[in-house]
Amino acid sequence: MTIMETRHILSKGADETQAFGKHLARHLKGGDILCFFGDLGSGKTTLIKGIAEGLKIDQKNVSSPTFVLMNIYEGRLALFHFDLYRLEHIREIDTIGYDEFLYGNGVSVIEWADRLGASLPEEYLKIELEHKTLNERAILLTAIGRRYQDLVGKIAAVRGKIS
Fold first, then answer.
1. Alpha helices in the chain (DSSP H)
2. Which of 37, 87, 142, 148 has the most CB atoms lying inside 10 A of its own CB?
3. pLDDT tens across 76-128, in order?
4. What is the model's pLDDT at position 78?
5. What is the mean pLDDT of the segment spanning 61-73?
6. Which of 16, 18, 50 is nearest to 161 (CA)?
7. Cα separation, 144 vs 137, whole angstroms
């Protein structure tokens, strides 16, 4: 696993975080994997709502699937939304056919991806969110693998203002 490229983005509110997600979604394709890291309330689900909107999914239907491990949303591409917050044992994820979704034709977004440990995919876009102030969030994108280096390069023009 090689870290190839990193970008920092500052979001000044939930609207900007969603707008960035929508922008990111324009560049996603089937089979892409986005792994989210960050504390409670750091904006993971907010960013995923923006991605959903960019994939032509009504973001009002998107919520963190905390109690079921995964939700599926249909749009331009299927969105497989995993939330591993309550995952106690990594083998629990096997009960939902994790690999079939992860390496399928949709886009996989994984909240609390740190819970995967050694089972993290070999290549993915790592998205770390961090509180800066009450409304501001730092978003750190790290490309793990060539596909994601290309992806980060495409969205790098977003620096500063998110629209």
1. 14-25, 44-54, 98-102, 146-155
2. 148
3. 999 999 888 776 666 656 666 666 777 788 999 999 898 888 788 999 999 99
4. 94
5. 76
6. 16
7. 22
pLDDT for 160 equals: 44
User: What pLDDT is stored for residue 104 in this prediction?
Assistant: 80
Domains assigned to the chain: 3-158 (3.40.50.300)
CA 119/CA 100 separation, integer angstroms: 14
Written as six digits, the tokens of 36 are 């989210």
Closest of 116, 115, 140, 142 to residue 130, by C-alpha: 140
Cβ atoms < 10 Å from Cβ of 26? 12
Task: Compute how many other C-beta atoms are within 10 angstroms of the C-beta atom of residue 36.
Answer: 24
Instruction: Give just the sign of the alpha carbon dihedral 153, 50, 62, 112.
Output: positive
